Amino acid sequence: MRAFEYVKPATVAEAIRELGRSWTDAKILAGGIDLLGELKEGIIAPQRIVNIKGINGLRYIRFSEKDGLRLGALATLEEIETHQVIRQRYTALAEAAHSVGTPQIRNVGTIGGNLCQRPRCWYYRDEHTKCLKKGGPMCFAYNGENKYHAILGGGPCYIVHPSDCAPALIAFKASVTIVSLRGQRTVTLEEFFVLPSRRLDHETILEPDEIVTEIRVPTPPPNTRSTYLKFKERDSHDFAIVGAAVVMRLKGKVCEDVRIVLSGVAPIPWRSPEAEAVLKGKAITPELAEQAGKAAVAKAQPLAQNAYKVPLTQAIVKQAVLKAAGLSV
Q: With a threshold of 0.90, does the pTM exceed it?
């Protein structure tokens, strides 16, 4: 690990001034779960670490019917998963936060960090491999070991985005507030993430001198139900092989509106309008939920070792749709 300067700003403005205009200038430390791993693995070597944990006003959870849910970027996953309003009104988000890591990780891991974490691809995480994402000539996963890689939206890089909370937040139509010396901007979380075909060096629209300060989630309409289901290889803490967030508005048994966002299958949290179209305006049944699962992977392009994700995604979507609709899985 290369030596670096360590700074602990007291305000967001001070933090922004410390960041610089290059990714090699500085990195933000919040919970530190992902950052410390990258430092120790030799993937990054910033000149400066900017610890934002001490900044007042970035750690909060607020809710009102008018403004909806507001999450400070430093709100921890444990605080989110145990918050009563989130458990009742934003169930998929509480379930997604609960699915992350271990209690120890959730106690320090932040929602901002969860959204901005880097991919877990073993080629990217190997300090001796200069893959496409690190400025190298190719994505080694394409013709290499790709058991856990993308089946949707891949190319030229085939990572999958590791966040569990992001699919749930996108399903709830969340937005993020981003601050820099140039001012403040707010974008939908769906726009926040970008495919490798658009940007290789990072998975979001963030620039080196920008900080996510808040996530806003609208108040769900009446009769909204939601869930997040995740299949992982180990029963202990693990990342999603496949996951699905479903937010559904029901009138009786009829689905009036729905948003379905997948995890573990694409370089970004992957929204499936194809699966949504199958459900809208129809009474939810096991047969219809199965059709939605098939629609979710109709455009899948699996690699040599991950075709198993296609039927697995179908099954997860089916189960999540039935659970969100209050039907037995």
A: yes
